[in-house]
Design goal:
Length: 216
């Protein structure tokens, strides 16, 4: 059961997670496909090499066909030559993979349900937390500077346009084990990568609304 804390780290209340996060029977292969898709879609696919017909020069035969004692050659841009063309080299391509909306939603719900089930989610009342220094984030998230260097990797999730977000992001950017994102950019790999999630109350409401939309 996640706790709601204020800007001082004091527990204000405890809330029961929404029913959508209570249990999840999503097959593991759906989560794998979702994570694989997210990594694949982030690849630039710009690796490029020139083929024989794309390399400049080489229009003249290097030497005559017979009588030199050397192997016959037709162009200095053949693959066996230095600076020649590359055989079967990489070409620009798209690594994008598709996954239908229902499966993407199911994978995200399953990942969040696992975090809620393992008590790795904390709700933060961001309206009372406007840190001016990194030390304030350290105190709230880890309790001490020493713990901040070895504590759980933490992801702070906020709702778009939420108050005090700029101050929180500025104070947390110096912490190696802390990252900040919004609900629109939250994906499965981020939920699984970080050991603890700190959701603002507005972010939690936004996630519940978006994941239950159309579900009655």
């Amino acid at each position: 059961m996640p706790s709601v804390i204020d800007g001082n780290g004091a527990v204000v209340r405890e809330v029961a997670p929404h029913a959508i996060f209570a249990t999840s029977d999503v097959p593991q292969h759906v989560i794998f496909r979702a994570v694989h898709r997210e990594f694949a879609n982030s690849r630039a696919g710009t690796a490029s090499t020139k083929k024989r017909d794309e390399v400049a020069g080489g229009g003249r035969k290097p030497w005559r066909q017979k009588g030199t004692g050397r192997a016959r050659q037709g162009s200095i841009r053949s693959p066996q030559w230095r600076h020649g063309g590359v055989v079967f080299g990489p070409q620009p391509r798209s690594y994008a993979e598709g996954l239908n909306k229902k499966e993407r939603r199911s994978a995200l719900v399953a990942a969040l349900a696992e975090r809620f089930g393992s008590d790795a989610v904390t709700l933060l009342d961001a309206s009372t937390f406007a840190p001016a220094k990194t030390a304030e984030c350290v105190q709230l998230l880890f309790g001490s500077r020493k713990a901040a260097t070895s504590g759980p990797k933490t992801l702070i999730v906020h709702a778009p346009g939420e108050t005090n977000v700029t101050a929180i992001a500025r104070a947390a950017r110096n912490l190696r084990r802390v990252a900040v994102t919004d609900t629109g950019a939250l994906d499965v790999k981020d939920v699984l990568r970080y050991e603890r999630l700190v959701l603002t109350t507005a972010a939690y409401d936004t996630l519940v609304e978006s994941l239950t939309r159309g579900k009655g």
